[in-house]
Structures are given as structure tokens and as C-alpha cells.
């Protein structure tokens, strides 16, 4: 059998450099240490800065490096462990100390969200913002969209604002009977506001987990949670669970 075209393709230079850099991170640098600047690193390994940047971006995506505003590129800590999906379905905020409510507003959602919720495109919905912190670093930011029809006991006149408003929406939402909970995960890039909340640079890789909460008759809420891709490793079990593993389990990098 002849050699296929795929077998004949050589390893890209940036990928080889990524392997060399990964070995250097293991042997020469400690967690939190700032790497030399790009010019010095490129000179050390004898590569163009464009090639170096590709290798650094790949290592950042793998969770080995972090680029921080005003600091530079540092060696990343072990990935944190955070459970996203569980066998027991529950409304957001139900015995969930991991997520912290930040505020709540009433605003017109993006068209795709309005379509998923079955609301009119110009119909305002409750938008609850929550954050998730692990090991003293932000790991996720969430926008939870809740139609007014899902929380009829919360009128516009008596709805509090800020964190109290967020807790009120979550409390009223839990009065409903949850019938289904479905999640989907995709890779994305951090927008400006998300990057600021997650202490990342705009365009940094993120994992977007979209969860639909439904009663027997309608979609009652839609969550769009953005996780730092550099801190998370997802595994899918037979039960459909989604977990983030830490330390050695994050593993074979």
C-alpha cells in the first residue's frame, strides 16, 4: 500500500516548537512565573516571532499558559475541577453555592435567545448575571434569561435591583416544576465584556455552555455560561455528565 498524502505531511514548525516549549515549562518554570518576552524566546529557539506566537497560542488553549493584562504570559496553575452537568436536574440557584448572583435587569435578549424562549423579539426578559470563582480566580460568567411568564409572582414594580433582584428571580423560578434540562457545549472566543469578567484578553478561547430549562409546556429559562478554556477540561460520561478535572487528571498535556 502506497504512502497517503496525509502521512507525507510534515509536522508544522510551530507544533514542534510547542512540544519543545512544553518540555521547558515542565523543567525550567514554576506556576505563576512570567515567561521572557517574545523577542528573547524567539531568539533562544531560533524561530520567527510569528511561529512563536502560534506555539504560545496553542499552549494557552491547552491550559499551560495564561496571558494577563499588564503582566504578560505566565505559567498556568493546574486546571480547576468544576461540575457542569449532573444526573439530578435542578433550577439554577437551587443549593448551588458555586455560582454567585451579581445583578438582574430587564432587557430585550439577543434574537437567538428570544427564539429559544419563544418570546417576541422586542419583549424584555429578566437577565440575571452570575459569576463563578474557583481557587480565587474567575472561571465562568453566566447570563440567565428568564421570561416574565416564568416568574409571574415577580412584578416590575416590586422587583428589586442588583444582587437582590437576581436572587428574587432565581427564587421565583424555583416555584415551577422542572421537567427537562438540556445542555450543549461549544468553543468560542471571549468578547470584550466577557474577557473583562474572566480576567482574559479579548479573543481568548472560551467554552460556552448553553442550558435550556423547561417545564412540561415551555422553555422557562435559558442559561449561557462562558468558561475559561484555559482552566477547563471536559469529559462526557455514560450519564451525560460534564466535568472539569484538576491536577494530574487534567493530565496528559
UniProtKB/TrEMBL annotation:
Q: Which SUPFAM superfamilies match?
A: Chorismate lyase-like, Winged helix' DNA-binding domain
List the source organism. Streptomyces daghestanicus
Do the record's keywords include DNA-binding? yes
Q: Which InterPro entries match?
A: Bact_HTH_transcr_reg (IPR050679), Chorismate_lyase_/UTRA_dom_sf (IPR028978), Tscrpt_reg_HTH_GntR (IPR000524), UTRA (IPR011663), WH-like_DNA-bd_sf (IPR036388), WH_DNA-bd_sf (IPR036390)
Q: Name one Pfam family in it.
A: UTRA
Asked whether the keyword Hydrolase is assigned, the reply is: no
Kindly list the organism's lineage. Bacteria, Bacillati, Actinomycetota, Actinomycetes, Kitasatosporales
Query: Per its record, how is this protein called by name?
Result: GntR family transcriptional regulator
CDD domains reported for this sequence: WHTH_GntR
Amino acid at each position: 500500500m502506497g504512502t497517503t498524502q496525509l502521512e507525507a505531511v510534515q509536522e508544522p514548525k510551530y507544533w514542534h516548537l510547542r512540544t519543545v516549549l512544553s518540555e521547558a515549562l515542565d523543567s525550567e518554570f514554576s506556576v505563576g512565573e512570567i515567561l521572557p518576552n517574545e523577542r528573547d524566546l524567539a531568539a533562544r529557539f531560533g524561530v520567527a516571532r510569528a511561529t512563536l506566537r502560534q506555539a504560545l497560542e496553542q499552549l494557552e488553549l491547552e491550559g499551560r499558559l495564561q496571558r494577563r493584562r499588564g503582566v504578560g504570559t505566565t505559567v498556568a496553575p493546574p486546571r480547576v475541577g468544576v461540575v457542569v452537568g449532573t444526573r439530578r436536574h435542578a433550577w439554577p440557584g437551587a443549593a448551588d453555592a458555586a455560582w454567585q448572583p451579581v445583578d438582574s435587569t430587564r432587557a430585550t435578549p439577543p434574537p437567538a435567545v428570544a427564539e429559544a424562549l419563544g418570546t417576541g423579539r422586542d419583549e424584555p426578559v429578566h437577565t440575571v448575571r452570575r459569576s463563578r470563582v474557583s481557587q480565587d480566580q474567575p472561571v465562568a460568567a453566566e447570563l440567565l434569561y428568564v421570561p416574565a411568564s416564568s416568574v409571574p409572582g415577580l412584578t416590575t414594580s416590586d422587583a428589586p435591583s442588583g444582587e437582590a433582584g437576581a436572587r428574587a428571580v432565581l427564587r421565583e423560578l424555583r416555584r415551577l416544576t422542572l421537567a427537562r434540562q438540556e445542555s450543549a457545549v461549544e468553543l468560542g472566543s471571549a468578547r470584550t465584556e466577557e474577557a473583562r469578567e474572566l480576567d482574559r484578553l479579548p479573543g481568548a478561547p472560551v467554552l460556552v455552555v448553553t442550558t435550556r430549562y423547561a417545564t412540561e409546556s415551555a422553555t422557562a429559562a435559558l442559561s449561557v455560561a462562558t468558561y475559561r478554556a484555559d482552566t477547563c477540561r471536559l469529559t462526557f460520561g455514560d450519564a451525560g455528565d460534564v466535568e472539569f478535572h484538576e491536577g494530574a487528571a487534567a493530565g496528559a498535556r
